[in-house]
Structures are given as structure tokens and as C-alpha cells.
């Protein structure tokens, strides 16, 4: 048996699979995110370990005499914590949702311009990136910056806890935006611009590489045998891509969690022209790369539930049902722009915010719920078109995550993109992909490609011609609204409404 542990944004999920790839048992344990100031998002790194222990023990309790022979970890990306020589946290971890570093980007790009940065790292700098966390610590927490022995992401923080060795997988390393994605090594030029030495970052290796064997102390905490191989996994979206079967060029994943992510597998790392809206980084599948866009998704629906539905006292299924009722009687569509923490798919939209366009006195809660769901879907369509300039058009989209449980959302995506939406049977694709990588590291599976050839499918949503025409019209209105509001966003940002530095 093999164990895949997914350290997500809000919870840890631990999945046990057998040697044929069949999912056997799932454990889950949540943890909080702190937002001490506007635009900030922090976590306690110890919560990742506590969650991994709790979720793993829960999964093991549901199996009689589990014999785990290997494990690997999938993690949220971009989140970074400064640590001492023993890998103990020196402060909170800054998560990928944190936007406080935006004002520092121009200063770094004055050393290495955005196009050159994108050429090396696969994307220009964004506020979410771990590289910018290091810059922020240098500028605003110099005592922590200089006192840190190393700057760890979730993966290498936990591989050290598990094995005593800090090793970072290539997908997570490349998401820091200080990594050369072509040569798969830390970039001296970019590290110099950030102001950090390479020895203060962990060594890197391809996903599925064995970092070491499980220490007795870690084994006792997890309820596992000491000495089993621990392989590095990958960024959660690349692990999810493996778990959903998106490993070959021309395949595409739509992961619908806190953020909604489009990921396409490609064979070459070259970056395209344009405004840098698509990130290129290393895939967890061997010798491949991934195109990725991400935007607010599940967190926007959570906001909708909190604000419109009495503090969240309803199910997401009820919200979807009300949105479907609104769609059935719709005459004047309401448009929602879901850029609640900026428009991450374009450099010029860094300062974007959410907006609602087209409200009348005839619209109510149901129409707003529909606008929220449709706005998230329209951002998918916008990014789908953007990615189409750099990758082969997919024959299908594989949709996973909590949002994939909505038939309404799945049909919106199928109609809008014009390609079938496939929903795999395995729901926890990130932990499943990590378990596959554990199997590769332990020698149980010959390769990632072999394991994902025949993954079971739950259903397929086919696009409709009428739906396609409707969403093309809505996408044009969506884009027009974004362009019209862009000057307002810029003026708001220039007004000096930056989060106060405590």
C-alpha cells in the first residue's frame, strides 16, 4: 500500500491506495489561515505537520492491518516559511493568497526586467510568489531574514520533518520564480536580484525522487513503519494532474478548489508572447512542463455564501440550485468579475478587484448566486483562450475538486470552451497523484505514464451549440468590463491604499 498526503490551503488529505492504484481510505484534517492585516494571508507551519499526522492516522484507522511501503507529499504552492538550522519556523508562513508584496515588485524588476524574468523562470514576478516573500522579509523583517538558515516551502519543510533531509521537488521550486525552468536549477541571476544565496534554499530533484527514509520519531507520530522510502511529490496542481491523467501534451486539467486552476501539459518549456498571463513551470510528470493560470474560485463562492446566505448556513448545493432557477428565468444577465485578490492572469490586472455589472431592482439573491458561478466560469474561459496561444487545443478538460461536483458549473465550462468536460472517478486527485509518485519512488510502479493510462471516469459533459454562442457573447462583455474598469483599478492603487506595515 502507498500513502499520498496533500497539504492544501485549508486542510490536509491523506489517501491510501493499493499496489494496483485502487483508492482505499481517506483521512482529512483542517487548519486555519490568519489574515492579520488587509491583503495578508499567513499560516503556522506546525499546523501542516499536525494536520498530516491527524489525516494519516484517520486514513490508517479505516484499513485493517495497513502495510504502507512508501509515501509522498503534494503541497500548496508558493507558501514560504523562514526556518532555523533545525528547520524550526522563525515566524508565520506567508501563503500564495497574500498580496502585501505588490509594491516591491517594481524595485526587483529594475534589476532584471519582467521579460527576462519570464524567460528564465516561466513567469514574471507576482505578489503570490515565494521569491517576493524573501524580498519582503529582507525589507520589513531584517532580523528574521538574516537569522534564517533557510527559506522553506511546504514540501522541503515536511521532507525534513519526515526524513531529516530537506529536498524540494522541481514543480514547487519552479513556482518560487527564482528557478531556471529550462535547466531545472536555481537561477544565480534571479537569486541575486532577490538578494538571497542559493545555500539558503533547499536542493531540488524531480518529483518521485526518494528524499530519504522515514525517521523513527516521524513514523511513531504518523503510525507508520520507520525506514519506508519518502519521495518528493510536487505542487498540488501538478500532482492533481497526474491523479487525473493530465500528463501528455494536449491534455488539460481544471482544478476547482479555493483557487480555480487551468493546467495544460507541454513537452517544451518555451514561454509565449503577450503580457505574461500564463505561468510555465515544471510538471511532476517526468521531463515535461505545465502551463498554468489561477484565479479566485471556491473562495468567491464561499464569500457569496457568507454574505448572501445568513453567514453560510446553507449548502453549496442549495446555492447551485438557486442559481439554476435564476438561469431558467433569466432575461437580463448580471456580470460578476471575480478578481477578489487581483487578476493573476495578467500583469496589468494586479490591482484589479471584484465588481458586479448590470444590477437592477429586479435582481435578487438567486441572480447574484448565478452571477458568482458564471463569473468564475467566465474567468476560466478567458484563461482557456489565453492558454490556447501557447499550447495545443485540448480534446477534453478534466475537471476535479469541490467545484467539479456542480453539474451547473461543469456544463458552463463545457459550453463556454466548446470541448467535453470529463469528471474522473477519483475525487482527491492531488493526494492520489502523490500516492502514484510514492509508488514510483518505492519501485512499485514502473512510471507515471503507465499508471494513468486507464483512470476511471465518472461522467462526461458535452458542449451545446446554443450554450457556446451564449458564453462567447458573455465573454466579450466580460472582457469589455475588465478593460473599462482597469483605469479605475490603477487610480485606486495609486491613491496609496496599501496595507499598513506594522
Summarize the model shown.
The protein has helices at residues 45-61, 105-109, 114-121, 130-140, 142-147, 154-163, 170-175, 188-194, 216-222, 236-244, 298-308, 316-328, 365-387, 407-417, 429-442, 448-451, 465-494, and strands spanning 2-7, 11-17, 23-30, 42-43, 70-75, 80-83, 93-94, 150-153, 168-169, 179-180, 185-186, 204-205, 210-213, 229-235, 252-256, 259-266, 279-282, 289-296, 335-337, 355-357, 397-400, 421-424, 457-461. With 502 residues, it is an alpha+beta fold.
CATH architecture of the largest domain: 2-Layer Sandwich
CATH homology superfamily of the largest domain: ATPase, nucleotide binding domain
Kindly report the average pLDDT value: 91
- Measured as a percent range, the helix fraction is 25-40%
CATH topology term of the largest domain: Nucleotidyltransferase, domain 5
Q: What does the largest sheet look like? A: 7 strands, mixed
Radius of gyration: 22 Å
| Low-pLDDT segments | 498-502
Describe what you observe in this structure.
The protein is of the alpha+beta class and 502 residues long. It has two domains: 329 residues, ATPase, nucleotide binding domain (Nucleotidyltransferase, domain 5); 144 residues, 2-Layer Sandwich (Nucleotidyltransferase, domain 5), CATH 3.30.420.40. The protein contains 17 helices and 23 strands. A seven-stranded mixed sheet has the order 17-18-16-15-21-22-23, sandwiched between helices. It has a six-stranded mixed sheet with strand order 3-2-1-5-14-13, with helices on both faces. A hairpin with a 4-residue loop joins strand 10 and strand 11. The protein is globular and about 65 Å long. It starts with a strand and ends in an 8-residue tail after the last helix.
Amino acid at each position: 500500500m502507498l500513502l499520498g498526503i496533500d497539504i492544501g490551503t485549508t486542510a490536509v488529505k491523506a489517501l491510501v491506495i493499493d499496489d494496483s492504484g485502487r483508492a482505499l481510505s481517506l483521512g482529512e484534517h483542517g487548519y486555519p489561515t490568519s489574515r492579520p492585516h488587509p491583503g495578508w494571508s499567513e499560516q503556522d507551519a506546525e499546523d501542516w505537520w499536525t494536520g498530516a499526522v491527524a489525516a494519516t492516522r484517520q486514513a490508517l484507522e479505516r484499513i485493517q492491518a495497513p502495510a504502507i511501503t512508501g509515501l509522498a507529499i503534494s503541497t500548496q504552492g508558493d507558501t514560504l516559511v523562514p526556518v532555523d538550522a533545525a528547520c524550526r519556523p522563525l515566524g508565520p508562513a506567508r501563503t500564495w493568497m497574500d498580496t502585501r508584496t505588490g509594491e516591491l515588485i517594481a524595485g526587483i524588476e529594475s534589476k532584471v526586467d519582467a521579460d527576462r524574468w519570464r524567460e528564465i523562470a516561466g513567469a514574471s514576478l507576482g505578489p503570490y510568489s515565494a521569491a517576493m516573500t524573501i524580498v519582503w522579509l529582507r525589507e520589513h523583517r531584517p532580523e528574521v531574514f538574516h537569522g534564517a538558515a533557510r527559506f522553506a516551502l511546504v514540501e522541503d519543510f515536511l521532507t525534513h520533518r519526515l526524513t531529516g533531509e530537506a529536498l524540494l521537488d522541481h514543480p514547487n521550486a519552479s513556482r518560487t520564480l527564482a528557478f531556471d525552468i529550462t535547466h531545472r536549477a536555481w537561477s544565480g541571476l534571479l537569486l541575486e536580484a532577490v538578494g538571497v544565496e542559493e545555500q539558503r534554499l533547499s536542493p531540488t530533484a524531480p518529483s518521485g525522487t526518494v528524499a530519504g527514509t522515514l525517521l523513527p520519531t516521524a513514523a511513531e507520530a504518523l503510525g507508520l513503519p520507520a525506514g519506508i522510502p519518502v519521495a518528493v511529490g510536487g505542487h498540488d496542481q501538478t500532482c492533481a494532474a497526474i491523479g487525473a491523467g493530465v500528463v501528455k501534451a494536449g491534455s488539460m486539467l481544471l482544478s476547482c478548489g479555493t483557487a480555480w486552476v487551468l493546467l495544460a501539459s507541454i513537452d517544451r518549456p518555451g514561454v509565449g508572447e503577450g503580457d505574461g498571463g500564463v505561468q510555465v513551470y515544471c510538471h511532476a510528470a517526468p521531463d515535461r512542463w505545465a502551463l498554468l493560470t489561477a484565479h479566485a474560485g471556491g473562495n468567491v463562492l464561499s464569500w457569496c455564501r457568507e454574505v448572501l446566505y445568513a453567514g453560510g448556513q446553507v449548502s453549496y448545493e442549495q446555492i447551485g440550485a438557486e442559481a439554476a432557477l435564476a438561469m431558467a428565468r433569466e432575461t437580463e444577465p448580471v456580470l460578476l468579475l471575480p478578481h477578489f485578490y487581483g487578476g493573476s492572469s495578467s500583469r496589468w490586472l494586479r490591482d484589479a478587484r471584484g465588481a458586479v455589472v448590470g444590477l437592477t431592482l429586479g435582481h435578487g439573491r438567486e441572480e447574484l448566486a448565478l452571477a458568482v458561478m458564471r463569473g468564475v466560469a467566465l474567468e476560466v474561459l478567458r484563461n482557456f483562450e489565453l492558454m490556447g496561444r501557447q499550447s495545443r487545443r485540448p480534446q477534453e478538460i478534466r475537471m476535479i475538486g469541490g467545484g467539479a461536483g456542480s453539474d451547473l458549473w461543469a456544463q458552463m465550462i463545457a459550453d463556454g470552451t466548446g470541448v467535453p468536460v470529463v469528471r474522473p472517478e477519483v475525487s482527491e486527485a492531488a493526494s492520489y497523484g502523490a500516492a502514484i509518485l510514492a509508488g514510483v519512488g518505492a519501485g512499485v510502479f514502473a512510471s507515471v505514464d503507465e499508471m494513468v493510462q486507464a483512470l476511471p471516469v465518472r461522467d462526461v459533459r458535452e458542449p451545446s451549440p446554443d450554450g457556446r454562442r451564449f458564453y462567447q457573447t458573455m465573454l466579450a462583455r466580460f472582457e469589455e468590463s475588465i478593460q473599462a474598469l482597469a483605469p479605475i483599478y490603477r487610480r485606486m492603487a495609486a491613491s496609496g491604499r496599501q496595507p499598513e506595515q506594522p
